[in-house]
Write a structure and sequence with these properties.
Layout lengths: L1 E5 L2 E3 L21 E3 L1 H17 L2 E8 L4 H10 L3 E6 L6 H15 L3 E5 L10 H9 L3 E5 L1 E5 L2 E8 L2 E8 L2 E5 L11 H7 L5 E3 L29 H13 L5
Parallel strand pairs: 1-4, 1-6, 4-5, 5-12, 6-11, 7-11
Antiparallel strand pairs: 2-3, 8-9, 9-10
Helix pairs in contact: 2-5, 3-4
This protein binds flavin-adenine dinucleotide.
Length: 248
């Protein structure tokens, strides 16, 4: 089975984010970048598919030179090949999707696996956009799935229940948290991954369709109230919740 896993580099969840002077980007100095956490589930799923059906797992990212770090992580986890569409240009999600789709057309995967969303820009749009560009069926935010007779049967968590969907291969899926327990790369594999080749693919894209016009940090912390547990104090907090916060 020919498996393509798409991965993105994002700021560490614990990083202290500051908006740059231009108002449309973040200060990268001092920020640690990591493999998007949802993409760990995608890589693990690709590796499990290979273990069951044989074949090749390729990890692909669209990014700058520094994004090679996450490809090294994917190689240490066990993917067979790694590729980067390398660019310093400002890309919107559509441009990123176009580059992924172009690469996919060159290797004709049986399945393309994404994380459910990037934890920095949070669009959750990449998987359906690439599926549309490749004219393939797609199922997003998959929490468990199986393959039988060249078709996938996938479960999705929905409000108050589960949904079961099916489509034939080739297809595109995006992985939900909990789909599997991603393996930790072993130290010898981390060391070996440092010298493995990474294919560089030339970017190709048009103008961005969507422009970021501003970004801002959340407004300052909410004001809290400290109350006691006397009857009068409990009455006052219930009154405040009812009259000021209007939540009860
Ligand atoms: C070189 C470069 C420069 C950029 N410059 C800017 C900028 O200046 N301003 C700005 O606002 N945004 C910028 N971006 C971010 C870009 O616009 C997208 O928003 C981002 O790459 C994808 O985020 P998303 O929220 O659309 O992905 P989602 O749709 O939320 O991601 C879902 C999944 O898609 C896959 N995926 C996401 N991104 C990539 C990727 N890059 N490569 C491979 N797979 C991926 C992962 O599996 C991920 O889990 C840049 C991106 C790149 C690669």
């Amino acid at each position: 089975m020919n498996i393509l896993v798409c991965i993105s580099q994002v700021p560490d969840t614990t990083a202290k984010i500051q908006v740059s002077g231009d108002g449309i980007s973040i200060e990268k100095a001092g920020v640690k970048f990591i493999l998007n956490p949802y993409d760990e589930f995608a890589i693990e799923e690709g590796l499990r598919l290979r273990e069951r059906f044989g074949g090749t797992v390729t990890a692909l990212t669209v990014g700058t030179e520094t994004s090679k770090e996450i490809l090294r992580t994917a190689l240490a986890m066990g993917v067979d090949k790694a590729g980067i569409v390398k660019t310093d240009a400002t890309l919107d999600s559509f441009n990123v999707a176009e580059n992924i789709a172009n690469y996919a057309k060159s290797i004709i995967p049986d399945i393309v696996i994404f994380g459910r969303q990037s934890i920095d820009f949070d669009s959750s749009g990449m998987a359906p956009m690439v599926a549309e560009m490749l004219d393939l069926p797609s199922i997003s935010v998959v929490s468990s799935w199986s393959i039988e007779n060249n078709a996938i049967i996938a479960e999705r968590d929905i409000e108050g229940g589960k949904e079961v969907l099916s489509c034939t291969l080739p297809c595109v899926i995006s992985a939900q948290k909990g789909l599997n327990d991603p393996r930790y790369p072993k130290l010898p594999d981390i060391m070996k991954a440092k010298s493995k080749p990474i294919e560089e693919i030339a970017p190709s894209h048009g103008a961005s369709l969507v422009s970021l016009t501003s970004m801002a940090l959340p407004s300052s912390k909410r004001v809290g109230m400290i109350v006691g547990d006397s009857e009068a104090e409990i009455t006052s907090i219930v009154t405040a919740l009812h009259e000021q916060a209007k939540v009860i």
